[in-house]
Amino acid sequence: MSVLHNIFFFIIAIGVLVTFHEFGHYWVARKVGVKVLRFSIGFGKPLFSWRKKTPEGDEIDFVIAAIPLGGYVKMLDEREGNVPEEEKARAFNNQSVSKRIAIVFAGPAFNFILAIFLYWIVFMLGSTVDRPLVGEVDEQSVAAQAGFQVKDEVLKVGDTPIKSWNGFRLAILDQGLNGGNIQVLVRDADGLEKTRELALGDMHLLADEGDIFRRVGFNQWWPEFKPEIGGVIEQSAAEIAGIRKGDVILRVDGVDIDQWMPLVDMIRSKPNQAMEFVVLRDGVEKAITVIPKSREVKDGERQGYIGAYQHIPEEIRQQLVTRVEYSPLQAASKAVVKTWDMSSLTLRVLWKMVTGEANLANISGPITIATYAGVTASIGLVSFLSFLAVISVSLGVLNLLPIPMLDGGHLFYYLIEILKGSPVSETFELHGQKVGMAILALLMSVAIFNDIQRLVQ
């Protein structure tokens, strides 16, 4: 059921994103007078199709096809077949370069517009987020050298206000992508505001796959209370073994357990090794054998995990979370800024990959995206809309890259046309398509390989 759940929301996500992207091409093409023949969501064999007549008298085929990994808008074009003399003025290839640029650019532009709209809804609906409270920092780490203390609440990173732990992580990645020093304003446990300088130096945060905060030395603050199970993940080691919500862990392998983090550390140290749990359930002690699953975390090191999370009493939860929401006008402004910031960050991360300063293991493919689609949908509407916004930004940025076969490749051809005064030759364009297909095939291979690696781990 979990796999079907992920696939369903993956198809919903891709369907929405591709529809908006292709609608951008479609809408602008019709506005500038180009004849549209087909609007397809997906590739391959049509599953559903219908024909619509426009006010101009054109008949357009609308198609939902079998392979939901993209789409296209087919326009009248002399390069793809004979065009009647009376319709040549409406063919795409006969439009001015400015009109062709507008049609091609409209696809990515609509992805950015969709992201702004989604972020606007997210900021208005608001969300409950983890407060940016710093826990124990790792010894000898950059965070420790900066003087971060337990229960420091992060207020700003540079000039960026911070409202949540995830916002803190994103700001550190954004401002620390090139290393250097970062000014972090905190409120310490005594209520005093202090500035701590995070000296990253020449550290490359994305040089390895995994949690960037682990490399910097940050841990999230977590209060200490009894190790009670708040829930288990479907098909996890905990669920398979029979661990249930409400179980209180008393002992593991004969060692008394009175706090959650020591339990986590024990589990991490025993991937794929049977562990004997003694839990208190309904007032009765029960012995359960649990075999933690294994995952790679860094440099071949493997850690165990069982897929269970801690129960947090409501009064403690209020210390850990805060509510963030904005008025419609504030949300609109923040949505535009957020979309710009995410676009800039995506582009800079891609450049780091090209220059070798970011690990290619950070590339994700359809399997990982499907997993996140299912997970965010399970969490709630705001989480799923935020996920859609991030993917929409990524789709917009990727499509503007000057790679043949992508919108950015066509825009690059038009730039050459403007400079040389005539279109690029069909031979040049054909060779470009071959190069583009090779690049995209390579990227997809890396992404799918990374997906499979994550599944295996």
Report on this structure.
With 457 residues, this protein is of the alpha+beta class. 45% of the residues lie in helices and 23% in strands. The strands form six sheets. The chain has a four-stranded antiparallel β-sheet with strand order 5-4-6-7. It has a four-stranded antiparallel β-sheet with strand order 10-9-11-12. A hairpin with a 2-residue loop joins strand 13 and strand 14. Helix 1 crosses helix 2, helix 2 crosses helix 9 and helix 2 runs antiparallel to helix 12. The longest helix has 31 residues. The radius of gyration is 26 Å and the shape is elongated. The mean pLDDT is 85.
- List the secondary-structure elements in sequence, H or E: HEEHEHEEHEEHEHEEHEEEEEHEHHHHH
Cα Rg = 26 Å
Give the biggest beta sheet.
Answer: 4 strands, antiparallel
Give me the number of helical elements.
Answer: 13
Task: Kindly state the number of beta strands.
Answer: 16
Beta fraction of the residues?
15-25%
